[in-house]
Amino acid sequence: MCKRYKIGIVGLGAIGLQIAQTIDQGNLSNFDLVAIATRDEKKATRNLEPFNHIPDITSIKNVCTSADIIVECAPAAIFRTIIEETIEAGKTLIPASVGALLPYTDLIERARSSGARIIVPTGALIGLDAVRAAAEGSIEKITLETRKPPNGLTGAPFLVENKISVENLTEAKLIFDGSARDGAKGFPANVNVAAALSLAGIGPDNTQLQIWADPSIDRNMHTITVEADSARFTMTIENIPTIENPKTGKITALSLIATLRRFTEPMIAGT
Questions:
Q1: 53 carries an active-site annotation
Q2: What domains can be seen in the chain, in order of their start residue?
Q3: pTM of the full predicted structure?
Q4: Residue of 9, 222, 253, 256 marked active site
């Protein structure tokens, strides 16, 4: 008999709500949604009214102690609290805010001692299984070029701090060229893909990132180029942004759902 898992979600925005609905509708076998933490409890209560089984709306600490798997879909500002509570409880964390993980890699050792796990989903990217395989050998270089419609980049800390405007562009504009670590810091809502790629490959300081504001596109585009001793490959994905938040692609929530599904499937395809 397949094990049942208790799921907790921190953050009930577009991504968290879609995952919650998928579990409640029975489209993820052997999962029970038991707890949710959110900053807007009134809105969460309204969104949960149609559910067949309404989870507890509670604190982050209670989510982490009551659930087996915690899915993080929250603002990066509270990520430290989420990961610490998960690790102390010895549970499994699946983060959507992968970029927020980079400053806290020291917690991985604490996870090892407490029995906790951190599972980084592919998210809006492509081919992390190939990157992970190549990393078992030697990778010489990994680059990621991200192109987004300008309105999906508005308000990013890097743009604000450097007084870079992406308004009224008539052609593509290179707005960042540096490491994945610096990119994740400057664009916390935009480039979780760069963090995920760096963790699968050669680390955030050695993964190169370019970000373009491109008024000619209506999708979030990511192109990975890898040069390794085992293979050379280039992969491009074009993600449709969500209506609720143009910074996030529709495929992000689906990637988190697919990550959960791996816990109970009798066969798993991909590394």
A1: no
A2: 5-123+252-261 (3.40.50.720), 128-246 (3.30.360.10)
A3: 0.91
A4: 222
